[in-house]
Design goal:
With 132 residues, this protein is an alpha+beta fold. It contains six helices and four strands; from the N terminus they run ββαββααααα. It folds into two domains: 81 residues, no CATH class; 51 residues. Strands 1-2 form a two-stranded antiparallel ribbon. It has a two-stranded antiparallel ribbon with strand order 3-4.
Length: 132
């Protein structure tokens, strides 16, 4: 938080069988919700933890990164935060992206992403077009 307050979001640490999620409280509350849920998704999915390598001679650390696990954690976390049925009902009621984000405590970026990935707006446009 002192040297690089914006360079990280959250991390999960397992110590003596207990899972601890440490998150960056300088991020927006919507981003914090996404970050914490992402970390919990790793636990739910029983993902292998990353390996952290610390240098003793210089102020440097590195970690392993599994793109597949990160994608799976994102997918689960974002579906938990904004389930398709809930998002569908919100858009069917013509709630704006901003209203949905505020109501569910997420970012507008996440709402836009979930709308694109679920195809909800396209589905509703077609339904309205055929109903008219």
């Amino acid at each position: 938080m002192v040297n690089d307050p914006w360079g990280w979001s959250a991390v999960t640490v397992a110590v003596h069988g207990r899972v601890i999620v440490v998150y960056n409280n300088r991020k927006s509350s919507g981003r914090q919700a996404s970050d914490v849920t992402h970390e919990l998704a790793h636990v739910i999915l029983s993902h292998e933890p990353a390996t952290v390598i610390l240098s003793e001679s210089v102020d440097l650390s590195m970690r392993t990164f599994d793109q597949k696990q990160e994608g799976e954690a994102n997918c689960l976390a974002w579906a938990l935060l904004l389930p398709r049925d809930v998002l569908f009902d919100a858009r069917k009621s013509r709630l704006s992206i901003d209203s949905i984000a505020t109501t569910f405590g997420v970012t507008e970026t996440l709402v836009q992403y979930r709308l694109r990935m679920t195809g909800i707006d396209v589905q509703l446009q077609r339904r309205r077009r055929f109903s008219a």
